[in-house]
């Protein structure tokens, strides 16, 4: 995703094994979809790394120095492309779990409104 017109994903690292069966989908992705993905995203540096004996994964490195790693073990090439597109479209921010659904700097003195509140 672009923040103020600048794509946040800086580098996409594709780790795969040339022998393992769990890397079959990512090897097919590299043959079929990766050249078109590189061509459609010229701002993105795509690096492939051969890591033998490990399950395949995609690692996204963002401009804010955060990293996201997605395991693509036993996925078909279309799903690997979907995961690469999701990494490209995300901002790279850490996921923060909210304590409540309502976020405010000044919480109500009277309490949070619920459907059981009597009038």
TrEMBL record:
<feature type="domain" description="Ribosomal protein/NADH dehydrogenase">
    <location>
        <begin position="18"/>
        <end position="91"/>
    </location>
</feature>
<dbReference type="InterPro" id="IPR007741">
    <property type="entry name" value="Ribosomal_mL43/mS25/NADH_DH"/>
</dbReference>
<dbReference type="InterPro" id="IPR039927">
    <property type="entry name" value="Ribosomal_mL43"/>
</dbReference>
<keyword id="KW-0689">Ribosomal protein</keyword>
<dbReference type="InterPro" id="IPR036249">
    <property type="entry name" value="Thioredoxin-like_sf"/>
</dbReference>
<keyword id="KW-0687">Ribonucleoprotein</keyword>
<dbReference type="GO" id="GO:0032543">
    <property type="term" value="P:mitochondrial translation"/>
</dbReference>
<dbReference type="GO" id="GO:0003735">
    <property type="term" value="F:structural constituent of ribosome"/>
</dbReference>
<protein>
    <recommendedName>
        <fullName>Large ribosomal subunit protein mL43</fullName>
    </recommendedName>
</protein>
<dbReference type="GO" id="GO:0005762">
    <property type="term" value="C:mitochondrial large ribosomal subunit"/>
</dbReference>
<keyword id="KW-0496">Mitochondrion</keyword>
<comment type="similarity">
    <text>Belongs to the mitochondrion-specific ribosomal protein mL43 family.</text>
</comment>
<dbReference type="Pfam" id="PF05047">
    <property type="entry name" value="L51_S25_CI-B8"/>
</dbReference>
